Amino acid sequence: MLQIRCPFCGTRDEVEFECGGAAHVVRPSPSATDVEWSNYLYVSPNTIGEHRERWYHGYGCGQWFNVIRNTVSHEIVVTYEMGGEPR
Ligand SMILES: [Zn+2]
After folding, report:
1. How far is the CA of 9 from the centre of ligand 1 (A)?
2. N or C: which end of the chain has fewer CB within 10 A?
């Protein structure tokens, strides 16, 4: 079982969290093409190695935060607040 460090509560078991998909995905401008919108809505990265994700502490503080996780080893490299940078 993964141990995830919530930036607000500290380290907890993974069962307290939900993964919300890729982090730092930039929304296209309103004038974007159909292909750009389609890629934004339906294509998600399938990274091998370190991947930035959004996680939600649903059975804790109820806050969203970012995680950099290695998709091969499942090692959590770092967690940090939304809008912040990894430290
Ligand atoms: Zn928390």
Report:
1. 4
2. N
Whether 86 and 65 have beta carbons less than 8 Å apart is answered as no
Which pLDDT value is given to residue 84? 85
Distance 45 CA to ligand 1 centre (A): 26
* Amino acid type, 62: G
Distance 51 CA to ligand 1 centre (A): 20
Q: Which residues are CB-contacts of 10 (< 8 A; sequence separation ≥ 6)?
A: none
**Domains within the chain, CATH numbers bracketed:** 3-28+35-81 (3.30.2270.10)
39 C-alpha vs ligand 1 centroid, how far in Å?
31
Structure tokens at 48: 């091998």
Strand blocks (E) in the chain: 3-6, 10-13, 18-22, 50-56, 64-70, 76-81
